[in-house]
Amino acid sequence: MAGAIEKLLLRQVRSPTKRQTDYNVFMAQPIPAEFAAKGKYLMKLKITAGPFTFDAVLEMQKAPKTSEAFLKQMPFAGQIVHVRWSGEGVWIPLGDHQFGVGYENHTSHPAPGHIILYPGGISETEILLAYGGVDFASKVGQLAGNHFITITSDLDKLAELGRLTLWEGAQNIKFEVAEK
To answer: CATH fold of 43-177, please?
Structure first.
């Protein structure tokens, strides 16, 4: 059954104007667990940052190459520090680590709860988590990163995480595929 669902989803996603009624009805239904588990359209993550735990979604449709490259690194662990140039965000400096992706679904202004990957170039590779207003930049100027993860729970705790990181220093962070 999953093969038939995959074919229908791919056909409908690529051409949403055809059979619009069927598409809307189908997309209103939950994606079957056996299909979602394959990570084709829905991938839930668990992020532990400092003392906080967040639910998140990997943006596989909006940033497929970045999502795929990040999944290969899972579970992904590091340390977040407060940004220097960008406003209300924390980041994982990754130096010259390469994910092998270019720009997709990129932005300089991620919303609170959005996580972006800067794939490197004029500045070092990094992952940034916005907890408030962010104008993504480095000492060399404006940057854009690929929005590939969206936090879906406890958004009110993000500012606490930001303040903790700013005043207490680096915090551990870990990204894992959610068990549910």
So the answer is: Cyclophilin (2.40.100)
d(CA 17, CA 23): 9
Which is it for strands 106-107 and 137-138: parallel, antiparallel or unpaired?
A: unpaired
The Cα-based distances of 78 to 125, 139, 173 in angstroms read 13, 23, 5
Helices 2-14, 20-28: axis angle to 10 degrees equals 130
Measure the CA–CA gap between 180 and 178, rounded to whole angstroms. 6
Give the C-alpha separation, 80 to 89, whole Å: 10
Per-residue pLDDT of the chain (180 residues; tens, 9 = 90+): 344 334 433 433 333 443 333 323 333 333 444 444 454 557 999 999 999 999 999 999 999 999 999 999 999 999 999 999 899 999 999 999 999 999 999 999 999 999 999 999 999 999 999 999 999 999 989 999 999 999 999 999 999 999 999 999 999 999 999 986
Q: How many CA within 13 A on the CB side of residue 153?
A: 11
Residues of the chain with CATH 2.40.100.20: 43-177
Share of the chain residues as helix, strand and coil, in percent rounded to the nearest 5: 25, 35, 40
